[in-house]
Amino acid sequence: MSYNNMPNWMDDDVDSSIPFTLDEMAQIYSTASVDPALLSYVTSPTLDMSIRQSSIPYSPTYYPTPQLTDNILIPPYNSVIVNGGIVPSQGLVNPMGQSTLHRLEPQTTLYSYLTTQNPRIRGPMEDPNLRRKNAKSPEFAFIWWDVRNVQVWDDFNLHTILAIPHLQTLLQCPLPVSCLPEAVFAPEYLQLGDKASFTKLANLSFCYKVTTALSMALGNLDLSMVLGPTGGSCELVGLYQDSVYQVQQNRVPGFIKSCREWNSLMQAGADGRRREYLQVLSQLQRYMRDHNTRYGYILTEQELVCVRAVTDQQGRPIFGCLDVSLPITWNQHGPGRFTIYLALWYLHMLANQTPLPGQFGWALNVPRSPSFGARQWTLPKDAWIPIPTKDDLAVAQSIRGWSEATDPLTFNETIL
């Protein structure tokens, strides 16, 4: 540790009652040990070779590596993370039993950091009179009736998070406030005018804080929340980077929509609104299947809705069957509330290389050839799903080779 990089309070005016020299303090920081049981569920000494050697490919799309920019914060966590594990502040003690970090800097927790208030936006993303339908795939790679079953993801909540072994300890572990800085942006970003401005705000707030919290929880930047490629259908990316195998994967795809374009109340509307509701879910399902990932989400200026692909007992993904969380509204914040920050952080923790205890891993093993008939692994369609017209089915049949997921296999299929 270089003395030139010491914080401002480490100068000649430091409190003489602190029984440490600079050399002793550097030694404490560099030799602190961590309880291996504390974070055994989020760290893994080796890669999961069963996943590496499986037939699951990774996305060919390459994303920019997070750097020290306004998009991604690399926090100064070296003082509290040792060998990939979090060291509680009470573990950094001098021989007299006095807590070094507690005496030197105010503290906070990941839980407090992730339950703060969302940015106070001052207007909708789009004009109230705008009525735009959601995007259709010209090659019918996805269409609204591809979603056949929508189930409530009822255990995606704060109670489940705090019930996972060691996760509550992780969230409530004291950390120096300098390790968890708040996102700062100009006031003009709060005045939304279009999707681009909201995406910029999401990057400066949610990507910033979620990546910061992930780096503190995991001890590295292997998993981060960043903006998607320019012009891509996925605006937000849960990016996993393997420095050993030089692999990049989008494990948590996120779509940004206007609340007038998509919201969770559309499910209870008329058939036209339900088709718009299902259209976005079908697009997200297609993206998740193409990238072999189980988790995704939809973010609007009103709410966050998280999605999990359903698999059967043999681990086969059920086509068109999605677990959809209850909406997490924009105004939820404070202790005891399930906030958007906390939900996004937890969703990315679910996509870590080592699965959380009692939860599904991130990988979704979709066979890469239509000959496997993966789309035929279905459940009976929910009664509330609208019935497509014969003309719509005929167009889908002529373009992609099949209309309904239960149709027989054909030789010219291209969609898994």
Q: Which descriptors would you attach to this protein?
A:
416 residues, alpha+beta, eight-stranded mixed sheet, two-stranded antiparallel sheet, 10 helices, globular
Percent of residues in helices = 10-25%
Shape: globular
The averaged pLDDT comes out at 76
Element pattern in H and E = HHEEHEHEHHEHEEEHEEEEHH
Sheet with most strands: 8 strands, mixed
β content, as a range? 5-15%
* First-last Cα distance: 53 Å
Helix/strand-derived category reads: alpha+beta
Structural notes for this entry:
- This protein is an alpha+beta fold and 416 residues long.
- It has a domain of 290 residues.
- The protein is 24% helix and 14% strand.
- It is built from 10 helices and 12 strands.
- Strands 4, 6, 7, 8, 9, 10, 11 and 12 form an 8-stranded mixed sheet that branches. Strands 1-2 form a two-stranded antiparallel ribbon.
- β1 and β2 form a beta hairpin.
- The chain starts with 21 loop residues before the first helix and ends in a 16-residue tail after the last helix.
- The relative contact order is 0.16.
- The N terminus is likely disordered.
Describe this structure in a few short sentences.
The protein contains 10 helices and 12 strands. With 416 residues, the chain is α+β, with helices and mostly antiparallel strands.
Describe how the helices and strands are arranged.
Blueprint: H1 22-31, H2 49-52, E1 81-82, E2 85-86, H3 100-104, E3 107-108, H4 110-114, E4 149-152, H5 158-163, H6 167-171, E5 175-176, H7 195-218, E6 223-227, E7 236-242, E8 247-256, H8 271-290, E9 295-299, E10 303-311, E11 317-324, E12 328-329, H9 340-350, H10 390-400
Parallel strand pairs: 4-11, 8-9
Antiparallel strand pairs: 1-2, 3-5, 6-7, 7-8, 9-10, 10-11, 10-12
Helix pairs in contact: 7-9
